[in-house]
Amino acid sequence: MSNPNRFLHVGLGALLVTGCAQQTVAAKYGITLPQSNAARDLTADQQVKQALARLTFGARPDEISRIGPDGLDRWLLGQLEPEKTNDFFCDSLLSTFSTQHMTVRELADSFPSQGIFIRELRRQRGLAPNAPLILSPEDSARMKSLSDRGNRVAQQIITAKITRAIFSERQLLEIMTDFWENHFSVFYGKMPTRFSLLEYDRDIIRPRALGKFRDLLGAVARSPEMLYYLDNWQSQADSVHDNLGELTNLTKAKTALDSMRIRAGVLKRRQGLNENYGRELLELHTLGVDGGYTQQDVINVARALTGWTVDDPGAGGGFVFRPAMHDASPKLVLGHELPGGRGIEDGEEVLDIVARHPATARFIARKLVRYLVSDSVPTSLVDRVAASFTRTDGDIRQVLATIVTSPEFYSRAAYRAKVKTPFELVVSTMRAMDQLPDTTPRTAQLPSRLGQPVFGRLTPDGWPDDAQEWINSGAILNRINFGTIAANGGLPGVTIDRWPPAALLRTAPFPEQVDGVIGELLGGEVSPETRSILLSGVNPLAGAMPASSAADTNAPRRLKDLIGLTLGAPEFQRR
């Protein structure tokens, strides 16, 4: 007969850890924890599982036990301060990628697009920009070779992103990099060069993913990727002559006139104001669709950002402000007057206004809480997170600390309440199965097969963060099939022989194999329905296991099938 005191001891231990597991983080970041812990109703072990599910791309084998309830607070601090974490293994993998050591300009020079290649040939031969050019067979062959090599090199950009997601020890940094890249979404099919996303991921988003929101917003606003994607690089004052009349400073006027002479051909193609970026800056990046702005605000924000452009975008040029394109007339943005006669200051002041607007604090808070806690956003937590955002001038690290120490984060309602996106499913599968490094494009292409190509969202609203968008009968079948492929050696670097528990489970009776796989891949927690399906060996959407494996209960093939079904189970599809 079991000892009832054992359960009392475990229960008290869980409650003690539950009440104080995040005290160190809270103290360091000046967070006052709610007096009542009634909402923090997960056990100590479940709190660790919840943190790993939301603040990483999925637990690796034995990671839950290695952290343990007593180590959760220390682990959270380490994730909030990634600069203190040694990431040698991941860094060594990335060191083999040439893209990680080169600028976009250097890559574009080394592997020019066909247009840039032809432009350079004209220059070398002393021809006018639009003069006819006859390519020799050697020219054509070299152009094709450079293009093909450039395409292969460009694939490293997405491979590097997914490599970091799988192998980096700085998992919260990767989670937040992915969040911000989706928040400030751009489309790989509309970039200045095929290498531009390297800069966006490596130099713009990642270094600021845990910093101040205003710094991140400003870096995105100056990025060639966003300016090009939303056409701001072509946006100019409706009347260049009227614009110059507002430039009361003679030096500015001379600079503008010089720029007009130099770029007369470009200006002819850039006719008038483009509102795309101004609108998305307000609607998607800061205030939100219900943020209280008007159409006139959109227009005036767009006017303030005229002249924010890209220098020779096809050749990998960077941000440049061109006074000749700027509307220097007075403007009114969200009740703030922007005086006339200015230049780049107009855009910077707009960024200051929207970054510190109360609607922005609430919009970002709500989006982060939805992403990290639950689709059913708890208003009480949004209120506290928005207050933290405002109080700290948009300190993202402080905002995250508020979330990860909250009772709502560790509530039963939030536990396994999020459905993994295809990207998250691929990466979590690789982590759970202890994938060997794959520096080819193969792993990076897998999210596309499940409906989410990396940087492949055509519209600027980013990929949806809602279960209904990712789960339907077709998607479920694809996910189950993906699990089967993973378990049967169909994914790069994933083999059952490498999976640590496999050696012990191979010779166990099948019911013990089921419990062992549940423990390793699902944290030991499944519904009775899922366990029944795993015991039966029948995929409810795709039929029974192959007869050859079902007939031999000790065959390695049977364990593979079991792992495949488990990876396709509803519990693994959630985080």
**Widest beta sheet: strand line-up:** 1-2
Strand count:
6
The amount of beta strand, in percent, is under 5%
Which percent range fits the helix content?
Answer: 55-70%
* Residue runs with pLDDT of under 50 for 5 or more positions: 1-20, 240-270, 544-556
Radius of gyration: 27 Å
Structure class: mainly alpha
Shape: globular
Oligomeric state of the chains in view: single chain
What is the count of helical runs? Answer: 31
Task: Report, as a whole number of angstroms, the end-to-end distance.
Answer: 36 Å
Helix and strand topology:
Layout: H1 4-20, H2 23-28, H3 44-55, H4 63-80, H5 88-94, H6 104-110, H7 114-124, H8 137-167, H9 171-183, H10 196-205, H11 213-221, H12 224-229, H13 240-246, H14 250-262, H15 264-269, H16 276-285, H17 295-304, E1 308-310, E2 319-321, E3 331-333, E4 336-338, H18 345-355, H19 358-372, H20 379-391, H21 396-404, H22 422-432, H23 442-449, H24 467-470, H25 473-487, H26 502-505, H27 510-521, H28 528-536, E5 538-539, E6 543-544, H29 547-550, H30 556-567, H31 570-573
Antiparallel strand pairs: 1-2, 3-4, 5-6
Helix pairs in contact: 3-4, 5-8, 8-22, 8-23, 11-18, 16-17, 19-20, 20-21, 22-23, 25-30, 27-30
